[in-house]
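quick q for whoever's on today - can somebody do inverse folding on this one?? i tried earlier but teh output was garbage lol. C-alpha cells:
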C-alpha cells in the first residue's frame, strides 16, 4: 500500500512525469487558488498583459512543453489576450519567443 509521501512516476500523454499524492487539506487549499492570474504591466507607456497559469490557460493539468505546437500556444495567447504567458506545470524552465509575422511590401 503506497504511503501519502510516496512519489509516483506515471506516463501522461506519452511523457513520464511524477505525481505527488496530496493530503485532503492540501487539496482543499489548492482548490481555493485562482486558475490563472492576469497582470497588466506598463513599460515606457506601453501596456503588456501577463498571464500566469499552472498548466495552461484552459487546464491546470495540461503540459505546455518546448515542443508544443506553436500555433496552439499562439492561439492560447490570443484567447487569453496575453502578451506574455507563464506556465509552470512541467517544472522545467524554458522560454519561447515568436516575432510577429511582417509581410514585406514592394516599394
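ok took a stab at it. sequence:
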Amino acid at each position: 500500500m503506497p504511503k501519502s509521501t510516496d512519489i509516483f512516476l506515471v506516463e501522461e500523454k506519452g511523457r513520464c512525469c511524477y505525481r505527488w499524492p496530496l493530503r485532503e487539506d492540501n487539496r482543499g487549499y489548492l482548490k481555493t487558488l485562482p486558475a490563472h492570474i492576469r497582470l497588466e504591466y506598463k513599460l515606457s507607456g506601453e501596456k503588456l498583459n501577463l498571464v500566469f497559469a499552472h498548466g495552461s490557460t484552459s487546464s491546470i493539468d495540461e503540459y505546455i512543453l518546448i515542443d508544443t505546437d506553436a500555433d496552439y500556444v499562439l492561439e492560447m495567447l490570443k484567447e487569453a489576450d496575453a502578451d506574455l504567458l507563464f506556465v509552470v506545470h512541467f517544472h522545467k524552465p524554458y522560454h519561447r519567443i515568436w516575432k510577429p509575422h511582417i509581410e514585406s511590401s514592394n516599394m
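fwiw DSSP finds two helices and five strands in the chain. also Residues 32-87 form one domain. so keep that in mind when u check it
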